[in-house]
Each structure stands twice: as C-alpha cells, then as structure tokens.
Write a structure and sequence with these properties.
single chain, 142 residues, mainly alpha, Arc Repressor Mutant, subunit A, 2 domains, two-stranded antiparallel ribbon, 2 strands, 72% helix, elongated, MarR family transcriptional regulator, MarR/SlyA-like, HTH_MarR-typ, WH-like_DNA-bd_sf
Length: 142
C-alpha cells in the first residue's frame, strides 16, 4: 500500500510539474502577444527557423502544399510581426523569409518554456535542493 501512495504522489507531482511548464508556455505566449497564433502557424515558424532563410516555394515543397496556401500563411505571419521578407540581391524575383525576434522566440517556444520552468525551480529551491533534484533527474536519464 505504501508503494501505491508513493506512486500516486509521484504521478500527481509530475502532473503538477507538467502543468507548471504549460503555465510557463502560456506566460511566454502572453508576453509575446501571440495568443492569436495557430499551431499550424507555429509549425511554419519552426520550419523557417530550421532553414534560417527560405522561400515560399521551398516551404510549399517541404509542406507539400500549394504556393498560394503558403503565401497566405506567410502574409498572416508578417502581419503578426513574426516573419520578414527580404529581396535577394542577386535575383530580385526571389524573396527570402526570415524570422523576426518575436518569430524566433515563438519558433523556439518549447526551449524557452523549459528555461522559464528552470527559472521558477531555481527561485523556489535552495542550492542543495537543486543539486539533489539534478542528481535524481540524471538517474532517470541513464
């Protein structure tokens, strides 16, 4: 029975930790004034971040979508100050899409929310408790 209580407590604590991470994500979204973005748009930002600078044609090919569909989403992302278009200096017909600072933060939302979570943990725990937690988590990764 003792083991069952420990299991349930661990499950509850892990759920609470996941909820705290979710709160960190929502806090970031709120700070970036990005609550109107869709999951699909965030996926576009992640792709653009992965390729650093890409074109609508490249995105359409990668996503297996038609150019007008991708163009529409890119325009929405421009209006939300998440991406910029830069004309190629060698071929004026080509425009590269890059992330703004806001777009970069949103593309890396998962990593940033983990950083926020770590900050919250560091604020709430003493140095020796952080060391213990780190040691315990390392055991789980082996």
């Amino acid at each position: 029975m003792h083991q069952d209580n420990g299991y349930l407590k661990l499950e509850t604590l892990l759920e609470a930790l996941a909820e705290l991470k979710g709160q960190c994500t929502f806090q970031l979204i709120d700070e970036l004034d990005a609550d109107q973005l869709t999951v699909k748009q965030i996926e576009y930002l992640k792709l653009i971040d992965e390729f650093e600078a890409t074109t609508i044609s490249n995105l359409a090919e990668i996503l297996d979508l038609k150019k007008p569909t991708v163009t529409e989403t890119v325009h929405k992302l421009q209006n939300l100050d998440c991406v910029m278009k830069h004309q190629c200096s060698l071929d004026g017909r080509i425009y590269y899409i890059t992330l703004t600072d806001k777009g970069e933060k949103l593309a890396r939302l998962d990593q940033m929310s983990y950083r926020y979570l770590v900050e919250k943990i560091v604020q709430r725990l003493e140095t020796n408790e952080i060391e213990i937690l780190t040691s315990l988590l390392e055991k789980l990764m082996i």
